[in-house]
Amino acid sequence: MKYSVELTVKTEETWIHVVLDDFTSFIQDHADCERKASGTSMSLVAKYPDRIKIIPALIETAVEELEHFRDVYAIMESKNIPLRHEIKEDLYIKELLGFCRTGKDERFLDRLLFASVVECRGAERFKLVYENHSDPEIKKFYHRLWASEAGHANLFPKLAMHYFDEKTVFSRLAEINEFEGEIVKKMPFRAALH
What pTM was computed for the model? Predict the structure, then answer.
């Protein structure tokens, strides 16, 4: 069963042109995103250690995201692209988190569902890189990542349903998805995943 959503706003074609014009900045940002994604899954384990039904899946996801970071870094090394010294603030993520509710259970649900929508956006954009990049190594890598991100997008709502009923999960997921679309519409294009 598919648990993830269809994005309400598709990425405009201009985005991929900006990315391809400055692929060095994009891949540096991508490496930063993979480090943060791994940390996000582990922070959910740290903040909700009592949610034992989902801890193994969160650990596995954190490891996968760290493996993605390793693989991005290998490409960067092969092309003499350094990691950034600082991870830049991601206004897209900041705005999404601003929509997060504050109650303990509500925040837990929102964090899982935000992760799903962010992974949906990542899958969509990795597919665009795969379809438009000319380097065969890069194409192959982003094809693999596209499928992986789509899998993660599907995972987080499924995890939420261990603790919340289906109606609650999908109702909130729809709200977050709508909000994410509004963020995407107003974000400037840059050589970054978000």
Answer: 0.94
The CB density around residue 154, as the number of other CB atoms within 10 Å, is: 18
* Residue 168, token pair as written in the block: 């609650």
Domain extent at residue 28: 13-186
In this prediction, residue 131 carries a pLDDT of: 97
Q: Is residue 4 part of a domain?
A: no
Q: In CATH, what number is assigned to the domain containing residue 34?
A: 1.20.1260.10
Give the tokens for residue 165. 């009923």
Residue 170 located in a structural domain: yes
Q: CA–CA separation, 100 vs 189, rounded Å?
A: 24
Whole-angstrom CA distances from 93 to 52, 90, 130, 136, 168 are 26, 5, 23, 30, 23
Angle at 61 between CA 162 and CA 161, to 5 degrees: 15
Residue range 75-125, pLDDT digits in tens: 999 999 999 988 888 999 999 999 999 999 999 999 999 999 999 999 999
